[in-house]
Amino acid sequence: MQINNSEIINKVSNSGLITIDLEDFYAKGERVLFDIKHNLWQGLALKEQEFRDFLKERDWSQYKDKNVAITCSVDAIVPTWAYMLLSSKLTPYAHKIVFGDLTQLENSLYEEILNQIDYEQYRDKKIVIKGCGKLFVPTNAFVLLTNKLQGIASSIMFGEPCSTVPIYKKPK
Q1: Residues 86, 134: one domain?
Q2: Which of 27, 112, 39 lies closest to 66, judged by CA?
Q3: pLDDT reported for residue 9
Q4: Is residue 10 included in any domain, yes or no?
């Protein structure tokens, strides 16, 4: 029996694939949901003076450097100005404020970060967008990254370098 002493070659590392892990772009800061439902009169409507008093008495410094999503999770009468007032109180402290739920907040954070990347570094490269991770990455971030890379990268794949799903291949 003859033993082959040939060297083991890592084809994945020699493939020229560039892996982008969206977790690497995860924005710092705690995420907080501010639900206006707790300020509703009888769970139905917002009373202006009571709401203004609440805003005046609240310690807004607790939101320092936090990412805040403001919403009303119940079907109620909440005028637009209420969200504007709330935002005006949070603005001096919070890092980011959006109207919506925590997924919309995460979408906004990723959009801000992904819009700052110089995508020319990926020109004519084979890209793998890593799929699984420990942090919540919204689907919107994967869609936005794909849109930014398409037409620049030679190919885009999803998953891990050893097992990918083809997404895009630049026409020749």
Answers
A1: no
A2: 27
A3: 40
A4: no
Structural domain containing residue 69: 31-94
Confirm whether 6 is domain-assigned.
no
Rounded Cα distance, 134 and 116, in Å: 24
Do 82 and 120 fall into the same domain?
no
Q: Nearest to residue 165, comparing CAs of 125, 111, 129?
A: 129
Total of domains in the chain: 2
Same domain, 57 and 84: yes
The number of beta carbons lying within 10 Å of the beta carbon of residue 40 is 19
pLDDT band at 160 (very low <50, low <70, confident <90, very high): confident
Asked if residue 69 lies in contact with residue 104, where contact means CB atoms within 8 angstroms, the answer is yes
Helix-strand-coil split of the chain, %, nearest 5? 35, 25, 40
pLDDT tens figures, 9-23 = 444 444 689 999 999
- Whole-angstrom Cα distance, residue 42 to residue 48? 14
> pTM for this one?
0.84
Q: Which of 76, 91, 98, 77 is nearest to 31 (CA)?
A: 98
Q: What is the dihedral of CA 18, 23, 25, 27, to 10 degrees?
A: 180
Instruction: Report how far residue 159's alpha carbon sits from residue 116's, in angstroms, rounded to the nearest whole number.
Output: 24
Q: Is residue 5 part of a domain?
A: no
Confidence tier at 7 by pLDDT (50, 70, 90): low
Residues 36 and 77 in one domain: yes
